[in-house]
Structures are given as C-alpha cells and as structure tokens.
C-alpha cells in the first residue's frame, strides 16, 4: 500500500503524519523544539527532520510514494553552494525593519518603497524580501549560492537540489502567483545583483526529485519516493481543515494567531499586513498576528490554562482590554513594527487576567476578519480552528461571541496532515529534474 508523508515545522515543534491513499492517518510523530540560540536553529531543524522520518515505522517508510514539508512563513536563510547557512536564520516574526542595531534599516524600507507597488506584502518589515536585502549587506555575496525558506532548506537535505521553492513560501519574497513569475520590478538596479540568489519557484506539491542515494540508504526511503515542493505551516493547516468554498476560513491558534479566508477576491494591503495566496481558482487572504498562545504560555502553565479557563464565564465580556504581545511589533491586523505590548493593568486574580487575555486575542481575531471583509474579501460563513488553542472550549465560546459565525473543529487539525495531502495530490505532471 502506498503512503504519503507530511512534515510540519512550526514555531514550537515539528510533526510528521503519514496517510494512505484513502486519506487515513497511519502514523503521527511529534517532536517539541527545545530553546536554543538562533544560530543553532538550522542544526536543530535538520536533526529533527531526520529524527521524524526515522521514527516512521519501517513498514510505512519503505512504501512512501511522496513526501512534502511545510515551514513557517518568511523564516529564511542565505546559504553557500553546500547549503550551509552563511548567517543565522531570520525567523518568521523578525521585523528586520525595526531591529535597533541596523542603522541602514530605514534605507531598506525606503528601497522597497521605491521598488515594489503600493500595498504589496513585501513592504512588511518581516517580509522575505526585506530580509534578503538586509542579509545581502551582512554576508560575503561571493560565497552565497541561494536564498531559501525553511521548508526549501529542509527539502534540500533530502533531494540535494538547492534553491527550489513553492509559490506559497515565496509570496513575501515578491513572487507573483498570478503571473507565475517574479514581477518586472525585480529588474530594479537594487535587486538585479540578487536575482541569482532567488529560488526557482514551482507550484506547491510539484515533484522536485527523489532522495539522494545516501539519504535513501540512511533513512530507509524508497529511491522512487517523490520529494515535493511544500507550503507554509498556516496554509498546510488550511488544507488539513477541509475548507474548500469561498467564505470558509481557518484560524490557527498556535504560538501566534493566523487567519486564512478563502475569497473570490485577491487582497494585498501591506498597510494592514494582509496578503493573498493563490489556491486553485480562488485566493486565500489573511495575515499573521504576533499575539497568540506564546503570550499565554508566558504567564500560565498548561495545567493553569486548563484549570483557570474552567473558572471563566465565557458569556460575560471581560472588563480588561489588552494587546497581548511578547515584544514590540505587530504584523496583522495592525502592521506596526513598533507597536508596544499592552498587558496592564493586571488584576491580582489570575483567572481574571486570563479572561482578559483570551477576550483580547479574540477581539484581535475579529478585527482581522472585519478588516478583510471591509477591503472586499468574501465574508466568512464558517471558521475552522486549528492549533493548540482549538482545545480550549472557554476560548471557543468567547471567540464565537466576537465572530458571530459557526466555529468548527476540523477532523484533522494538524498542519502535517495538510502537507501529507499535498504530497498525495501532486500537482506536477513531470519532474523538474
């Protein structure tokens, strides 16, 4: 029996899910990430990649037909020809345009303002393009071979083809999925010298190649296993949910808050941190906020979250209004790299404080959807909830009060399941290489 493997590299850990041809889960493995310095992240990712695959039962591994990887959006590296990073990775939430020690920061923002169209998502301070421009000033470009996203880099260690990406990961680099090419403004003199570092972009699910002989032998992967272009973790969660019609949406309540709404209209408004991914004949519009579960975890243990949530009356609005962030900077629905966290006044009662946090994050989610509709997106008709926060019933009632549409739990809430579906539903007719 053929199997299909999805690997999800999120913000707090990685997960593998194998499915069969009937879309049924055959095995699931999760590995949490320990806290390590940013320069050690690539080593951790690579070790986790091999560990996840190795833990898949040999009876499934030996019959894998295809494998795909998702990663966090705009987590990027610049590498030499061996794939070794020339600089520590820049993470998904690094607002490179707001980093204090970068005196040339304003220059980068001004360059993008002069290069890219108004409203394009590359104007975000955390965009991949902003990070490429900054990295180009930090490393010796004579040593640089490729600028890659997290999912691209991990795939390279399996198939050996450096510099191939998908158009979901590459959107914030500037790739236009409607044109299926980089836009003409990439010929600008500022970007022209960097074009050789840009990844070749293909549709998510496209077969890139097969395991290298060494990887096939070391991990027990069939030499014929198709290694496919991946996607971002939030789009993988959308694919896993089963949402497929305009008006259906997915909120991912993980370390951060990410919303994706399937719309008939494409919307790109960098002013609000809103961008659109191509998904079939429609557009997946939305954005990612820096608020979310990581803020809750800063103040409460998992046991406290469960116990205190049970003591909250979710039908009663909280009098405490916050903007919960771990550090300054927000991406969506307010795009402000300098936005300060608001976590005061803090009541003495931890239950009341948690109530205020849950209420405030729900309000940010509602503002995000309202912003999308205001700009022309198809109004949400129902919202699936993915991520760890989906298990909190108190939070679900609070969110329903703010959102006013049915909230559903997907049968398969894990992003890795969506990536396994991507591997199963390959879009390419023939291989790239």
TrEMBL record:
Q: Which SUPFAM superfamilies match?
A: Actin-like ATPase domain
Q: Does the keyword Nucleotide-binding apply?
A: no
Q: Which GO terms describe its biological process?
A: xylulose metabolic process
Which keywords, in A-to-Z order, does the entry hold?
Answer: Kinase, Transferase
Give the record's GO CC terms. Answer: cytosol
Q: List GO molecular-function terms, semicolon-separated.
A: D-ribulokinase activity; D-xylulokinase activity
Query: Where does the Carbohydrate kinase FGGY N-terminal domain lie?
Result: 3-239
Q: Which positions fall inside the Carbohydrate kinase FGGY C-terminal domain? A: 279-424
InterPro entries for this protein? ATPase_NBD (IPR043129), Carb_kinase_FGGY (IPR000577), FGGY_C (IPR018485), FGGY_N (IPR018484)
Q: Which PANTHER family match?
A: D-RIBULOSE KINASE, SUGAR KINASE
The family classification in the record reads: Belongs to the FGGY kinase family.
Please state what the protein is called.
Carbohydrate kinase
Q: What is the lineage of its organism?
A: Bacteria, Bacillati, Cyanobacteriota, Cyanophyceae, Synechococcales
């Amino acid at each position: 029996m053929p199997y299909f493997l999805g690997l999800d590299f999120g913000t707090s850990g990685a997960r593998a899910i194998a499915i069969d041809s009937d879309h049924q889960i055959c095995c699931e493995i999760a590995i949490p990430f320990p806290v390590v310095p940013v320069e050690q992240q690539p080593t951790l990712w690579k070790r986790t990649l091999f560990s996840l695959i190795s833990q898949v039962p040999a009876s499934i591994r030996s019959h894998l037909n295809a494998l795909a990887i998702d990663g966090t959006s705009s987590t990027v590296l610049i590498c030499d020809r061996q794939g070794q990073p020339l600089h520590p990775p820049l993470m998904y939430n690094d607002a490179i345009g707001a980093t204090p020690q970068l005196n040339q920061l304003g220059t980068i923002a001004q360059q993008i303002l002069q290069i890219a169209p108004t409203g394009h998502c590359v104007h975000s301070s955390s965009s991949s393009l902003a990070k490429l421009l900054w990295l180009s000033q930090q490393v010796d470009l004579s040593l640089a071979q490729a600028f890659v996203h997290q999912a691209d880099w991990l795939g390279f260690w399996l198939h050996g083809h450096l510099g191939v990406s998908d158009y979901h990961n590459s959107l914030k680099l500037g790739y236009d999925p409607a044109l299926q090419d980089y836009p003409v403004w990439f010929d600008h003199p500022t970007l022209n010298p960097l074009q050789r570092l840009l990844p070749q972009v293909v549709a998510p699910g496209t077969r890139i190649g097969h395991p290298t002989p060494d990887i096939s032998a070391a991990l027990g992967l069939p030499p014929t296993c198709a290694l496919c272009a991946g996607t971002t973790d939030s789009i993988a969660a959308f694919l896993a949910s089963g949402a497929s019609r305009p008006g259906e949406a997915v909120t991912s309540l993980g370390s951060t808050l990410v919303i994706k709404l399937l719309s008939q209209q494409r919307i790109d408004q960098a002013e609000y941190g809103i961008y659109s991914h191509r998904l079939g004949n429609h557009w997946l519009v939305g954005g990612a906020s820096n608020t979310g579960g990581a803020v809750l975890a800063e103040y409460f243990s998992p046991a406290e979250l469960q116990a205190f949530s049970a003591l909250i009356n979710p039908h009663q609005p909280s009098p405490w209004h916050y903007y919960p962030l771990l550090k300054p900077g927000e991406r969506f629905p307010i795009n402000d790299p300098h936005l300060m966290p608001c976590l005061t006044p803090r009541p003495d009662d931890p239950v009341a404080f948690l109530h205020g946090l849950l209420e405030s994050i729900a309000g940010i989610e509602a503002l995000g959807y309202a912003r999308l509709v205001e700009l022309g997106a198809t109004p949400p008709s129902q919202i699936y909830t993915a991520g760890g926060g989906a298990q909190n019933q108190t939070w679900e009632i609070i969110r329903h009060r703010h959102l006013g549409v049915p909230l559903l739990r997907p049968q398969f809430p894990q992003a890795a399941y969506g990536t396994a579906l991507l591997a199963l539903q390959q879009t390419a007719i023939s291989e790239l290489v």
